[in-house]
Amino acid sequence: MSSERTSGKPTVGDTAAFGFRQVAADARQGLVNDVFSSVAGRYDLMNDLMSGGLHRLWKDDLVAWLAPPKSARRFDLIDMAGGTGDISRRVLEAGGPGCAAVLCDISPAMVRVGRTRLSAPGLGGRIAFAIGNAEALPFPDKAFDAYTIAFGIRNVTRIDRALAEAYRVLRIGGRFLCLEFSACEVPLLDRLYDFHSFEIIPRLGALTAGSAEPYRYLVESIRTFPRQEPFAHMIRTAGFARVSYRNLTGGIAAMHSGWRI
Ligand SMILES: C[S@@+](CC[C@H](N)C(=O)[O-])C[C@H]1O[C@@H](n2cnc3c(N)ncnc32)[C@H](O)[C@@H]1O
Fold first, then answer.
1. What's the pTM value of the predicted model, to 2 decimals?
2. Nearest atom, ligand 1, residue 79 CA
3. CA gap 115, 175 in Å, rounded
4. Tell me: the pLDDT tens digits for 165-198?
5. Gap between the Cα atoms of 76 and 100, Å rounded
6. For residue 108, how many other CB atoms are within 10 A of its CB?
C-alpha cells in the first residue's frame, strides 16, 4: 500500500500522475474520460460504496457553506465537473427562484445521466448543461456568482489552469468552493480508511462493476492529490482571497473556499 501525496504539483515535466502511474500529460485526460464513461450508469452507486454514503452529507455541507440566496435575486452557479448533478440539484433546492445553475462536465456520458436525473419539474427551467474541460471553459469572463467543483478537481490534469479559469469566470464578489477527498488527520481512522480504500473498494468494484480498475484509479487519485494546506496555497496563487478550508470526517474529505474580490 502506498500513499504518494504530491506537494501541489500534479504534473512533472510532460508527465502527470494517473493514479500511482506517471503517464504523458496530454494522454491523461483521455484515460480519466474512459474511467467516467465506463462507470457513468453506476456512478451514483459507486459513490455510495466508496464513501459509505458519506458523500451525501459532505455535499449537504458544501451547499450549506455556499448558502445560496433564498430570495428572487439572480444567483448564477457553475457546477464544474458536475457529473450526475448532485450539487446542482442541492443548490437549486436550497436556493430561491433567482438561483440558476450550469452543470458543466467533460464527459458526455456523465452529463447524459445528470440530464435525466435533473429533469424533475421545478428544476428544469433553472438548469442548463454544457460539455467542457475545466482547464478551458466555454464561458465568458465574470459570468457566475459561484463556482463549485465536487470530487472533480483531482481528475483535472493541470489544476492551476482550472483554478485560473474558475477565477476568470467568477464575478467580483464571486465564490469558489471545492469539495474533494483529502488527507485523513485522525490516527486509527486513517488506518481504517486505508484498509477500506485499498482492500475493500477495488473488491466491491470488481463485484458490482466487473472490474476493479476504475475504482483503483479513483482511490489512487485521492492519494496523489495535494493535502489541505498545499491545495489552499494553490487557490491563493490563482488569485483568490480569504481562502479557508474545513475538514470533513477527520479530513477524509475537505471543503476549500475562496473569493474573487
Ligand atoms: C467523481 S465525479 C464527480 C461528479 C459530481 N460532481 C459529484 O460530486 O457527484 C468527477 C467528474 O469530473 C469530470 N471531469 C474529469 N475531468 C474533467 C475536466 N478536465 N473538466 C471537467 N470535468 C472533468 C468527470 O467526467 C466526472 O463527471
1. 0.93
2. 6
3. 25
4. 999 999 999 999 999 999 999 999 999 988 988 8
5. 5
6. 13
Contacts of 131 (CB under 8 A, 6+ apart): 104, 105, 106, 107, 108, 111
Q: Which residue has the cell 421545478?
A: 122
DSSP 258: E
| Ligand 1 neighbourhood includes 83 CB (under 6 angstroms) | yes
Distance (angstroms) between ligand 1 centre and the Cα of 81 equals: 4
Q: What are phi and psi of 34, to 5 degrees?
A: -60, -40
Quick: pLDDT tens for 92-121: 999 999 999 999 999 999 999 999 999 877
The burial class, CB within 10 Å (0-12 / 13-18 / 19+), for 54 is middle
DSSP 187-229: TTHHHHHHHIIIIIHHHHHHHHHS-SHHHHHHHHHHHHS--HH
